[in-house]
């Protein structure tokens, strides 16, 4: 299931990039030159055969003069809900000291935490039920045993 989701996101990304390229009245070769990638590689991205790195996506977005964040959303790297972790994701993607593999690993861990926290939040009791701290009786024998 995960693989089909990735394939779907990549296909959608390729179609989106092709639409943006055509809208910008650029040939495949022109975009490849401006983005600093090979013509065959860009063609494979547009056809959904390749999943480009965040850096390549950023170069393509810059060449097309479109938002890199929007391209990241289309690629499935960023959540479409801008209120959920966008700044963390963008910071990880923009960090030049991390490798692509490290970036994807960090984002995977981050997304798993977000998913876990949303499940915990959904299962948690109402705030009124959790405001009170539990009352603990002191055991006078415990202090005596320490002396």
What report would you give on this structure?
There is one protein chain. 69% of the residues lie in helices and 0% in strands. It contains 9 helices and no strands.
Concise overview:
With 147 residues, this protein is an all-alpha fold. The chain has helices spanning 2-23, 28-35, 39-46, 54-64, 68-75, 86-94, 100-123, 127-130, 140-146. Helix 2 crosses helix 3 and helix 2 (28-35) packs across helix 4.
C-alpha-based Rg, rounded: 24 Å
Strand content: under 5%
Largest sheet: none
Number of extended strands: 0
| Cα distance spanning the termini | 61 Å
Summarize model confidence as the mean pLDDT: 78
**What's the number of helices?**
9
Note the overall shape: elongated
Q: Give the helix/strand class.
A: mainly alpha
List the helices and strands in order.
HHHHHHHHH
List segments where confidence is low: pLDDT < 50 over at least 5 consecutive residues: 1-8, 127-131
What portion of residues is helical? 55-70%
